[in-house]
Write a structure and sequence with these properties.
InterPro entries: Cro/C1-type_HTH, HTH_LacI, LacI/GalR-like_sensor, Lambda_DNA-bd_dom_sf, Peripla_BP_I
Domain HTH lacI-type: 12-62
CATH architecture of the largest domain: 3-Layer(aba) Sandwich
Order of helices and strands: HHHHEHEEHEEHEHHEHEEHEE
Number of strands: 11
Radius of gyration: 25 Å
CATH class of the largest domain: Alpha Beta
Mean pLDDT: 88
Number of domains: 3
Structural class: alpha/beta
Protein name: Transcriptional regulator, LacI family
Strand content: 15-25%
Number of helices: 11
Pfam families: LacI, Peripla_BP_3
Strand order of the largest sheet: 2-1-3-4-5-10
CATH topology of the largest domain: Rossmann fold
Keywords: DNA-binding, Transcription, Transcription regulation
Length: 340
């Protein structure tokens, strides 16, 4: 009794169902040793009595927390509104996949050394850890590198490192899709915008797929000028300025990410260059904002629902491939590459 309100116990459910208390316990811990008729009888009794099992006690007995920690790495200078919306979308995919597996998620946004913490599994705060977010915070990745290398129940999205325990989009295939689309649309002098020789391994993979497919068509890609601005939109603007200063002739752009593409689109519009008439543009990431650009931006979109499922599977399934897997991608064709 507590304040005149009685809390139903497993013993009450056992009495109503005509089974032992240990049978009730096994039903709610998912034991396969219970027959289906007995399971249904216990569950019916629990519903009738409005019984809720004590999750904390169950977790203590099983040694599991029922929680997956999700660390989102950001840049120290970014406010919540400035964090790449791609990270929020991927986070949603992870949380949904975890929920489908019966797990709760503990989400932590980390940007600076005084915030870095990744020992959730070791400290029994969570059963597994998933790390995602910007690669523009090298100090954060140096902190998480040894944890990801050593902890079998930890995995990351992307990652500027070559070690295993990661999931990323099929960047090479995305580059090939961009090349095929631009070529089929009649563009013959494409330029790739984005740093290739950098910590952004995924950018190099996108460039690789793009250039290899163009070569099969008999074409070549113009490499991106060196970019120095820290933000991606600024890099897109900077790239257009440098291409104009160098007198580079091009008729299309494959940008390493949507923000670079949006910056390039803005700079081209300011120069009075028609998109898609004079220059076609393809971005990468499938950000919702690209649909509202002027003109709407063609983009390569990773399947982030599937990415979330793959990340969760990596940390929960022992048979999961620890050497990394690829989330599928698709091309979303819009007006930025639609000639005529």
């Amino acid at each position: 009794m507590s304040n005149g309100t009685y809390k139903t116990t497993a013993w009450d459910v056992a009495e109503k169902a005509g089974v032992s208390q240990s049978t009730v316990s096994r039903v709610f811990t998912g034991s396969t040793r219970i027959s289906e008729p007995t399971r249904e009888k216990v569950l019916a009794a629990a519903r009738a009595l409005d019984y809720l099992p004590d999750k904390r006690a169950s977790r203590l007995r099983s040694g599991q927390t029922g929680v997956i920690a999700v660390v989102v790495i950001t840049r120290a200078e970014d406010s919540a509104q400035e964090i790449n919306p791609f990270a929020y979308t991927l986070l949603g995919g992870v949380c949904r996949a975890a929920s489908d597996r019966g797990y709760e998620t503990l989400v932590s946004f980390q940007a600076s050394t005084d915030q870095f913490y990744g020992r959730y599994v070791e400290q029994r705060d969570a059963d597994a850890m998933i790390v995602l977010g910007t690669t523009q915070n090298p100090a954060a990745w140096e902190h998480f590198r040894p944890i990801l290398q050593q902890e079998c129940r930890a995995v990351c999205w992307g990652l500027p490192l070559d070690e295993p325990h990661s999931v990323r989009s099929d960047n090479v295939q995305g580059g090939k899709l961009a090349a095929e689309h631009l070529w089929e649309s009649g563009y013959r002098r494409p330029v790739f915008l984005g740093p290739v020789e950098s910590e952004q391994r995924q950018f190099a993979e996108r460039f690789k797929g793009f250039s290899e497919r163009l070569q099969k068509f008999g074409g070549n890609v113009i490499a991106s000028p060196e970019l120095s601005r820290p933000d991606r939109v600024g890099q897109g603007r900077e790239a257009i300025e440098k291409l104009a200063a160098d007198g580079t002739q091009y008729d299309s752009i494959f940008a390493a990410c949507d923000f670079i593409a949006l910056g390039a689109l803005e700079a081209l519009t300011q120069r009075g260059i028609s998109v898609p008439g004079d220059v076609g543009i393809v971005g990468y990431d499938g950000l919702a904002a690209t649909a509202h650009a002027s003109p709407p931006l063609t983009t390569i979109k990773p399947d982030l629902e599937e990415a979330g499922r793959q990340l969760v599977a990596h940390v929960l399934d022992e048979e999961s491939d620890a050497n990394g897997s690829l989330a599928p991608v698709e091309l979303i064709a819009r007006a930025s590459t639609r000639r005529g």
